[in-house]
Design a protein that fits this description.
With 246 residues, this protein is an alpha/beta fold. It has a single domain, classed as Nucleoside phosphorylase domain (Rossmann fold, 3-Layer(aba) Sandwich). It is 26% helix and 24% strand. The chain contains 5 helices and 11 strands; from the N terminus they run ββββαβββαββαβαβα. Strands 1, 2, 3, 4, 5, 6, 7, 8, 9, 10 and 11 form an 11-stranded mixed sheet that branches. Strand 9, helix 3 and strand 10 form a beta-alpha-beta unit. Helix 2 packs across helix 5. It is globular, with a radius of gyration of 17 Å. The relative contact order is 0.22. Bound molecules: hypoxanthine.
Length: 246
Amino acid sequence: MSRLAIIGGTGLTQLADLKIIRHDSITTPYGSPSADFITGELNQKEVVFLARHGNPHSIAPHKINYRANIWGLKQLGVEHIIAVAAVGGITSEMVPAHIVIPDQIIDYSYGRKNTFFEDENDPVSHIDFSYPYSHALRSRLIHAAKKAGIPISPIGTYGCTQGPRLETSAEIKRMENDGCDLVGMTGMPEAALAKELGINYATICVIANWAAGKIEGEISMAEIEQNLHKGMANAVTLLKAFVEMM
Ligand code: HPA
């Protein structure tokens, strides 16, 4: 397999098992990426790692320079991205600490720089986005999960909200009516930008909590941390099984 990158989200700021080879600090026409790009070996396979929220975790979802991140990865010759993202669970199968490989997206974010084609001199470009995630990468992830014995949901619709606040219970009801299974804040425009540059992209979602209104009372940050701790350990095992198949 050609060059693979892993974008780590909340709960995965570092890949502890990555044997680091090189740090690349890249400036792009779109500004600075979230952090240095780290090239290293995971299970003897070379991968590039990027901490989406910076390292240490300091950049809120709406402040992330998605264009610089994706552009930088393209500069490094990356052709495939596995993004890891913490999400809230909306539908009944989406229980905390569970892993989902989503197949669809609904974008509720706004005001983000969401295209590389915005200059007057750029051609008008409408990428096909019928299937936002790479079918080939998703199939491999599903296969790797089976091999590693990690239970996952192999489909799901990811709704991307603007954040940084969590949603109201009415907003989650509306999202469920729309067909969303999961809610997160960073899936867009990341997926669309990867598609604009011709990079294959898939996401491992780790469920941190029941979405707003799905349980009595408030969403507890302590519970989120606990669920992410368990879920991210499985996500890393899945990533290792995935690279083993490369
Ligand atoms: N909503 C939005 N993003 C999230 C959530 C949530 O409940 N949990 C983790 N990321």
